[in-house]
Write a structure and sequence with these properties.
Blueprint lengths: L1 H7 L9 E6 L3 H13 L3 E7 L7 H4 L6 H4 L2 H8 L4 E5 L9 H7 L2 E4 L5 E2 L12 E3 H8 L16 E5 L3 H11 L2 H4 L6 H8 L5 E5 L11 H8 L4 E5 L8 H7 L5 H16 L5 E6 L2 E8 L5 E12 L5 E13 L2 E4 L3 E2 L8 E2 L4 E2 L1 E2 L2 E5 L2 E8 L2 H4 L7 H16 L11 H7 L7 H16 L11 H4 L1
Parallel strand pairs: 1-2, 1-4, 2-3, 4-20, 6-14, 7-8, 7-14, 8-10, 9-10
Antiparallel strand pairs: 5-15, 11-12, 12-13, 16-17, 18-19, 19-20
Helix pairs in contact: 2-15, 8-11, 11-13
The chain binds flavin-adenine dinucleotide.
């Protein structure tokens, strides 16, 4: 492996000073920085983050009632302790600095900018009030500065979450969690107030296909099953599988689907009641959001059945049957995607920067030797926090192959440019002050932290 050779050989790229920029301080940015620091003992790594706060979706995506998952930030903080790493928060590449300026200041640049945009859902009525994408809604309850004033109205009794992956289940859980439970978390104050006052008693989760194809994990479903005073409703006929789903379920890789199905059957059998309800609707596609005669918002759905597409995939086909559900609040959670950065070749369909094993395409068919990608902007929006470590390591291995044996010295320091522009950047020490402040605000009211959601206040 090139990386190991470099570490072993004196006088190689590992021994000279290399300036590396990493853009984005989510899990993949930190894992990429860690790999660079390990593989290149004389490298200086600068980590840029557009927001004043580090950790990407660990702070602004992971659900507030999952504190153990959020505690992964302790390992990122250890990485940030390296004297060879500088954190520049509140520096957005594209706004405060351009990609070309990074290339002039660094030997290599890794973009780890994630995929934090909701995939668009193109149906009539999607732009109505109280209809949101999951990234806005999740950002709102997690205190993302861009979503702090999202006009969420929980006065209607019903909500619909379009999608049935883990993010959709997170959202459904947040909508029915008892206020006393919410108040124990680090949910944003704005969202806590709105959800405490909520009238929502029924949340409908929608999946285009059947239970065997559903994207949630058994662990997430078990969490819903453990919620006190919440009835889960699964239609028994949805658990009667067609032949093709039976075949899919029998495959060795369908272990999670088998567990999901067993849990869904247990839900039907136990028939537990509750003052709030989550309904699972399988084999339906959203068609239109509109108002019914009494001006209540509702969602029209088309009933689907599964059909083999001839290439071994089971796809949803409309049967012609339709139905309607009350939908006072609608959140569509059908996936995330990344955004283009600089001039790098972007694939809008997949929402990723085009790359080969992490080496970015500067243009169609032209691989960059200086620019790389890691994490969700490289692979697309899937995978848990830990998946980004292997992904970042692969990228750094590719980067080491492109690094000249003796990179020329770069004297220019980006800090000088930032200061000359008056960019109000946040160091990691500054972040620690904000972190301590949020925790002390939380401690005073018996919560893990109270999120500051306003950028000027953070600064
Ligand atoms: C709602 C939700 C819940 C999740 N829950 C879990 C969970 O419970 N457990 C789990 O293991 N995984 C969970 N995940 C998955 C996990 O969050 C991702 O695997 C991980 O965050 C992806 O890491 P990343 O670094 O690629 O992207 P991100 O975490 O999105 O980080 C990207 C960072 O780049 C910054 N950035 C973007 N553009 C720029 C720019 N131009 N200049 C400077 N900075 C920029 C962003 O502000 C952000 O901080 C969840 C994901 C979502 C969406």
């Amino acid at each position: 492996m090139a990386s190991l050779n470099r570490e072993a050989a004196p006088g190689s790229g590992a021994q000279v000073e290399v300036r590396c920029a990493v853009v984005g301080s989510g899990p993949s940015g930190f894992y990429a920085a860690e790999a660079l620091l390990k593989q290149l003992p004389k490298a200086q790594v600068d980590l840029f983050e557009g927001l004043p706060t580090p950790f990407g979706l660990v702070r602004y995506g992971v659900a507030p009632d999952h504190p153990r998952i959020k505690s992964v930030t302790a390992s990122f903080e250890r990485i940030a302790e390296s004297p060879r790493l500088r954190f520049f928060g509140n520096v957005h590449i594209g706004r405060d600095l351009q990609g070309s300026e990074l290339l002039a200041h660094y030997h290599t640049v890794i973009y780890a900018t994630g995929g934090s945009q909701s995939r668009a859902l193109d149906i009539p009525g999607i732009d109505r009030d109280n209809v949101f994408g999951s990234s806005e809604f999740v950002g709102w309850y997690n205190g993302h500065p861009d979503q702090r004033t999202l006009p969420v109205d929980t006065s209607p009794g019903s909500a619909v979450v379009i999608g049935m992956g883990n993010v959709a289940l997170d959202i459904a859980r947040m909508l029915v969690l008892a206020p006393v439970q919410l108040a124990k978390t680090d949910i944003a104050d704005e969202a806590l107030a709105v959800l405490t006052d909520s009238n929502i008693t029924e949340v409908c989760l929608l999946a285009r296909r059947g239970p065997v194809q559903a994207a949630f994990t058994p662990k997430e479903l078990e969490q819903l099953m453990a919620l006190p005073d919440v009835e889960l409703v699964v239609e028994p006929q949805d658990l009667q599988l067609d032949g093709a789903s039976e075949v899919q379920l029998a495959q060795p890789e369908s272990g999670e689907a088998r567990q999901n199905l067993a849990l869904l059957r247990r839900i039907v059998e136990r028939g537990q009641g509750g003052s709030k309800r989550i309904r699972f609707l399988f084999n339906v596609s959203p068609v239109e959001i509109s108002s019914d005669g009494e001006q209540q918002q509702c969602l029209s759905l088309a009933r689907n059945r599964l059909q083999d597409d001839g290439q071994g995939r089971l796809v949803a086909k409309a049967t012609g049957e339709s139905l309607r559900v009350s939908a006072g609040l609608v959140v569509h959670a059908t996936g995330y995607q990344g955004q283009a950065v600089g001039d790098l070749n972007f694939d809008p369909r997949r929402g990723v920067i085009q790359n080969r094993e992490g080496r970015a395409f500067a243009r169609e068919e032209v691989l960059s030797s200086q620019e790389f990608v890691a994490g969700w902007i490289k692979r697309g929006a899937s995978g848990v926090i830990g998946s980004n470590k292997h992904c970042a390591n692969e990228t750094v291995d590719q980067l080491l192959k492109q690094l000249p044996e003796a990179p020329g010295a770069i004297e220019k320091d980006i800090q000088v440019l930032l200061e000359s522009r008056g960019v109000n950047y946040v160091s990691f020490a500054d972040w620690r002050l904000l972190d301590a402040h949020e925790q002390s605000l939380g401690k005073a009211v018996g919560r893990p932290r109270r999120l500051i959601t306003d950028v000027p206040q953070m600064l």
